[in-house]
Amino acid sequence: MVKKLKDMKFGKKAIVRGIDDELKSKLAGMGIRVGKELTFKTKQPIDGPVVVEVNGSTTSMGIGMADKIKVEVID
Amino acid sequence: MKLLLIGHPNVGKSVLFNRLTGANVTESNYPGTTVDYTKGYMQIDGEEVELIDVPGTFSLDPKDKAEEVAVKMLKDNEDSIVICVIDSTKIERGLYLALEIIEMGYPVVIALNMWDVAKDKDIEIDLQRLRELLGVPVVPTIAVSGWGVKELVSKIKDAKPRDISKIESKVEGTS
Amino acid sequence: MECEIDERWKLVDRIAEETVTYGDGKTTLKDAIAELTVKPLTGLPIALAVLYGFWSFFSAFAGFFTDGFFVRLFDNHWLPWLQGVFPGKGSWYYFILVGDPAAGNSFEAFGMLTSGLFVAIGIVLPAITAFYLYLIILEDSGYMPRLAVLIDTLLHKIGLHGFAIVPMILSLGCNVPGVAATRTLQTKKQRFMMITLLAIFIPCGAQLGVIFSLIPEFAGIILLYLLIGFIFFGFILHKVIPGKSPEILIDIPPYRTPSLENVSKKLWVRTKGFFTTAIPFVLLGVGLVNVLYLGGVIDWLAEALGPLLTTWFGVPKETVGPLVAGFLRKDLAVAQLSAIEMTKYQLISSVVLVNLYFPCIATFIMMMKEGSERGVRGVLEILGGSLLVLATVLFIWGGLLHLIWIMMGVA
User: Model's pTM, two decimal places?
Assistant: First the structure.
């Protein structure tokens, strides 16, 4: 099932299926890219940032960015 | 000849810088500690060489001022050799940055830092294969203890610009 | 461009596939703490505890050394000795260097070598050491980025983002490195907002040290009033200033045990750096104010500004002296204020005023330096902009406090 990253539940794993073009280069350096598995760690309340883990690195990004990433939940 | 020390924030770059130059730069465990670059000097085969500790950057597509400085340092010093410091436990995104630098035509030496932490985490890295595929010197280091730093220094001379398409065909040829 | 990124990543993944094998990666204690400190349910209480710890450690450590050691050293030994041996009682140089010959403690004497040294060494040194020790441990352990994530929800609403916590906390030590740290923010708007807000609202460690040591009972209310001001004016600036406020995007490093070597090295470097600039400025500040007193300038200023101070801000006109000194050192200004006779509400108001009004000279220079990267125009923009905001805030926020006292019937 493909959904937006920001709509994921924490503790779940997903494969990144799409990233908006403008965001792609920003996230590339942090190791977040299409086809990669990520774990959704937490989400802060009142539209705060989300925290994801990719390849053992933890990254936090604003909810607006998480809105522009599509993922396929696998677990 | 100039040397640029480039890598992600928080990979022990400043510690390595201290090791190489005998300087006394302190570090912190969060990104963006080094906002300005720091300069120092080191000896290679009796020759004094300038080493610049570039602010940590995740890619060469800058998203803040510290990263802009990193990109500018690269562009202003086109004839430099780059020591790319990679966190051995996060090798993929480190390689991504290394490839970006190689693509720009700089001779690169890769320091796989925090080698001990990778060992602790049961991460195994086939150094020989990595060297073959990349065609650039790859040296495991533990900056905090100084392990591997000597070897790193001895490999700096071996750094040569590498055509990215050669790396591609190497990888294709084996899979 | 997009292609390039995907292709590069494809290549990286191919290389990694062939050369890297991951073990089963046990979950360590550090990993578990890492999770707990960033999840809102557990992270927020932990953050509050960490900040409360900061507060307690700061006041306990500073109190221990200041009251337990330096007060005795200065009051019982240094001051009587100096008053005894220093020649020329009643002369102008005695007034400038030693101050009041009848003073019973180093604090009220007000000479460069008495109050000046006491404030710098007796109060500020312990405060700044305590502050940096705690901060460095937070920094080296890797807690700061987690704090940034937790606070982002709030800070993003005022156009900054979580990482602004780094310049904010650094400013609590000294505004100068705080201003420098705004470089990690992305846009011109964010940097301008942060520099302006921290120069106006964030008291430095030296100032906090004096507040905690002389008027600890008002520390809470003063800081709370400044914090509310920070958020309120931050929100307004966010609406008024054009420009982008990008979202947070940060890497969260794993926890590490701080190394004794790095902590002590950093503590030494920072305390020394702070101290070598602080001592001359504190001494100069005391000297300057004393000279101005002797020349009658302070009295003249007090008369000229008196109506404004008393009617708008509700503080006595004698606060002019400390306000002048505050340009050189704010810690000194607070120390001088506490020696002036006034009600506790006036004291709170005047300490708040010292905070809000003009940044100290070192911060001022640092702000110019930040602007200068974009030439003369950059300097004018940052100084002009900041000073305009500052004047507005000073009048509104300083006047509002007076209004609050009036409504409470205590002014």
Answer: 0.81
* Contact check, Cβ <8 Å, A47/C153: yes
Spatial contact of C179 and C370, defined as CB atoms under 8 Å apart:
yes
- Tally of CB atoms within 10 A around A23: 17
- Domains of chain A with bracketed CATH: 2-73 (2.30.30.90)
Sign of CA dihedral C358, C343, C318, C96: negative
Q: Which of A3, A2, A15 is nearest to A52 (CA)?
A: A15
Domain that holds residue B120: 2-174
Interface of C with B in 154-173 (CB under 8 A): 163, 166
How close B121 comes to chain C (CA, Å)? 6
C45-102 pLDDT tens trace: 898 999 888 888 887 888 888 888 888 898 888 888 888 888 888 888 888 888 888 8
pLDDT number for residue B138: 93
Q: How many separate domains does chain B show?
A: 1
Which residues on chain B are in Cβ contact (under 8 Å) with A57? 90, 93
User: How far away is chain B from the Cα of A31, in angstroms, using its nearest Cα?
Assistant: 5
pLDDT digits (tens, 9 = 90+) for C331-349: 778 888 888 888 888 888 8
Write the CATH number for B163. Answer: 3.40.50.300
3-class SS at B161?
coil
Q: Which residues of A touch B32 (CB under 8 A)?
A: none
Shortest CB distance from A55 goes to which of B63, B92, B97?
B92
Prediction ipTM score: 0.89
Residue C266 sits at the chain A interface (C-beta within 8 Å): no
- Burial (0-12, 13-18, 19+ Cβ within 10 Å), B68: middle
